[in-house]
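Please check what follows.
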Amino acid sequence: MTLGKWGVRLAMTVGLAAGCGGPRGGQLEPRFVAVHNAMTAVGLSQSGPIHEGALRPGGEARLHQRLSTDKCYTFVALGERDVRDIDIRVLAEGGDEVGRDTTHDRQAAAQVCPEHEGEYELVVAMASGHGSYMLTSWSKGASGEVTRRGGGAGTCGSPFAAPAGRPLSGNTAQGSSRMQGSCANGNAPEHVYKIDVERRSQVSVRVEAGFDASLYLLGECGQAQSEVRCNDDAQSGDTSQSRLDVSLDPGTYYAVVDGYGTNAGEYEMLVSMSPLREVRSICAEAAALTAGRSVNGTTEGKPDNFQASCAGGARSADNVFRIEVPQRSRLRVRQQSDHDGALYLRSDCSEATSELACNDDFGDNRHSLVSKLVDPGRYFVFADGFSGSGGSPQGNFALEAEVVPVSGAHAQNDTCQTASNINLGGRVQVDTIHATDDAQGSCGGAGAPDVMHRLKVLKRSRLRVTMSKSEFVGALYVQRTCGDASSEVVCKETPASIPRTNEARLDTPLDPGEYTLVIDGKEAGAFGAAEVEVRLEELQALERTCRRAPILAPGRTVNGSTGTGKDDFQASCASHTQSNDAVYRVKVRRRSRVRITLSSDFDGALHLRRDCTSQTTELACNDDHEDNRHSQVEATLDPGTYYAIVDGFGRGNQGNFSLELSVSSP
């Protein structure tokens, strides 16, 4: 959108208002006077005669006016009360259309920057309604408010000039198709503009077009890998506007006005540029972020002063905060935003290489999280946004920081002595940031804070632990004697939940007795919150199911169904196979190569175990083999009995299946 078009819309809005205030609102003279005054106010002068007439529905009037190449012209037509939609088209010699109105109203406007001096035809059309109209034109010279595009051919070899603050117009239909942006693929013709940035500046490029336009900025013309930013639609649902707002270092850049797919046509463009403050002065004024106190803020309307290693470079509007750390500590910062936010941490505000942590999405694109072990000193927290082909998200956010000495500050269930009984079957919220380091497992935990829960098993049972929404890479382990590493029963490494829907599972049989479940960090810098669910299921029924499992014989197809079963088994693949399942025994008499193939009418999964009741003895797991109706596992097995389990992806996948076993020499 250019200032010229803004002025036209302002004038037309004023004209419409002038005609709607009383019983004689259909008369044209008061509206024309209002438009004339508004056009004059934005620096334009009347440059053509006033044409008046009346048209029936669907009728046309053809008028003529001589235009010169040193001006851009704005034609405005006003229709009386019974006019519903009036249009204007401007035709050059030979009938080529060089300008048209794209609105649907009882006033119309078209802008033209003539390529050649001469007689042009003005076509006024009554698209809807009937009645009288008035038409005239306004203009200003090439050095004024609305100008034609700068010199050049609009290509990489000869780009148009794009001085800041001067509205420009063009028609991409006259361009060539040699490149495309990342946000709008196609082979539409484009125009190239050269933008010179003398000092670090916030640069805005805005385009309004009569077609589905796209806009992108390149560091090297014609080089897709040098793309700085690309935007198709500035606002959702509005394909006529594209906009880029980006902070640029000194240099030469190339703005490309392109089209989505094969779209082309007339457009107007405005480049604005404002110098940015020095980064060091911005850092010196960074607001304080106090541990334990929430801070609300916004990046709306802020420049892009800082970038990061994640979130597509975080080339969006940003805010910076400083936080003081008095001693070696665990530092955690959480961000919640109403846009696709990003969060990162530096030890030196103005130095990108001092970045210590960066996170785009924790669980979803409205939450971000950074946590780190840090030495005493001042650190800088940046509230930023993801940058991609969709634009530069900005908006409101809330930050909360916590600083805890690395030795810990004691948490609930922090030690063997303070451990409480776990709540079976329910979800328990844990947080290790305040805990001390009291235990260690074979799969991790050295130097990391941990919390503990007591577990009493009355009958031989299956222990199932699910850990979700975890802020850290952890270690789950079970000990018979709390704090005694030699009494460990099982240890399972757990990933951080990014995305938050990721779950970690521990599944193991336990004999009757008392145990301790330890929730630990994988290593010293791993700490945070998580949600834990613990279930104990007596194994008598499951062991009976395993003992009665049918034997799978080589070379013989077995047909079955999991539709009427239940979920007895889980696995490491297929989103933990939380669907109904069926188990088969595989007896191996000598060391052999075993292949089991599953065909199903649902999204099936297949896994193989050495111990029927223990997931930790899983030997192979496959979700899709070629497609989601087939699965296959292969393994070289020593003599013994193994268990093949027909299962389904995630939850709710069950149905009919066939199973085949083949055995060969290893």
